[in-house]
Amino acid sequence: MVKKITIDGMTIGEGRFVLVAGPCVLESLELALEVACEVKKICDGLGLGYIFKSSFDKANRTSIYSFRGPGLEVGLRWLEEVKTKVGVPVLTDIHEPKQADLVSSVVDIIQIPAFLCRQTDLIMSAAKTGKPLNIKKAQFLSPYDMRFVLEKAKESGNDQVILCERGTTFGYKQLVVDFRSLSIMRSFGCPVMFDATHSVQMPGGQGASSGGKRQFVLPLSRAAVSVGIDALFMEVHPDPDNAKSDGPNMVALSNLRGLLEELIALDDLVKNKLGCVEIEEA
C-alpha cells in the first residue's frame, strides 16, 4: 500500500500524476512569477495538479564561477511571493541541516538533492520539520539502497516521503535511467517521482558546466509514465538556451502544454486500464 500525501488539496500517490515544475534556479522574482503563472494556467486547463519548484542556491555547480542563485533569505522571500500571488504550493531543496527549519516555514515540500541523499543529519533535520520530503535517488545508488534513506526519515518521525528517480551514472558525463527503479522504490510503500530533465543531463558535459539532451525528455517521460509514477519533475524556462543553470536539459515553456497533453493521455490509459506496475520488495 502506497502512502498518500496530500498537499493543498492534491493527492500524490493516487490517480493522475502531479507536475512539479519551474526554472532550475531562482534567477529573478519576475521570472519565477512568470513561469509559475503560465504553468498553473496550463495545468488548470488540463486538470493537472501543480507544484512550483526552484532553488535558492545551486550549491553543487560544476564551477565556482557558475551562478548559484539569490541565496537563502532572498530566495525564500521570492518563493513565498510565488506561493501567495500565484496560489500554488512550492518546493525547494536544502543542502545543510541548519536550513531545514527556516525553509519549512515557507515551502510545502522540502527536497533533498541526489548527491546528498545519504547525509543522515540532513535527512533527519528535514524529516523533523514534519513537511513532506522529496528525496532524489543518488546517481551512484541502487534503487534498493533507497529503503535505508527512507528508513532514516521514518525513524525521525516522518513517513511523508516521495522517492525520485533522476538517472544513474553511466561512464563519464553520461546518465542512464533504469526504469525498474520506479517500481522498486514504489514497493517500499511511498509515491515515486520521475525527474525528466535531470535524467537527460550530461554532468560536466560543457566543461565548466553541465550539458544535456532535452530532446530525450519526452521519450523518457513516456517510459516513466508507462511504468507508473505519482509525480513528474520538469525544469522549464521561457528561454532555456539563455538560462543561468541547466539550460541544455530544460524544457521550453512554449512546448510544455503539448508535452503534458501526450503524457496525461498515457497516464490515464495506464492507470485506468492497467494499473501501476509494482513488484514485491526484495
Automatic annotation (TrEMBL):
It is an enzyme of class 2 (transferase). It is found in: Cytoplasm. The keyword Ion transport does not apply. GO terms for biological process: keto-3-deoxy-D-manno-octulosonic acid biosynthetic process. Pfam families: DAHP_synth_1. Residues 9-270 form the DAHP synthetase I/KDSA domain. It catalyses: D-arabinose 5-phosphate + phosphoenolpyruvate + H2O = 3-deoxy-alpha-D-manno-2-octulosonate-8-phosphate + phosphate. Belongs to the KdsA family. This is 2-dehydro-3-deoxyphosphooctonate aldolase. It comes from the Bacteria. Its EC number is 2.5.1.55. HAMAP family: KDO8P_synth (MF_00056). Transmembrane segments: none annotated. GO terms for cellular component: cytoplasm. InterPro entries: Aldolase_TIM (IPR013785), DAHP1/KDSA (IPR006218), KDO8P_synthase (IPR006269). Pathway: Bacterial outer membrane biogenesis; lipopolysaccharide biosynthesis; Carbohydrate biosynthesis; 3-deoxy-D-manno-octulosonate biosynthesis; 3-deoxy-D-manno-octulosonate from D-ribulose 5-phosphate: step 2/3. GO terms for molecular function: 3-deoxy-8-phosphooctulonate synthase activity. Keywords: Cytoplasm, Lipopolysaccharide biosynthesis, Transferase.
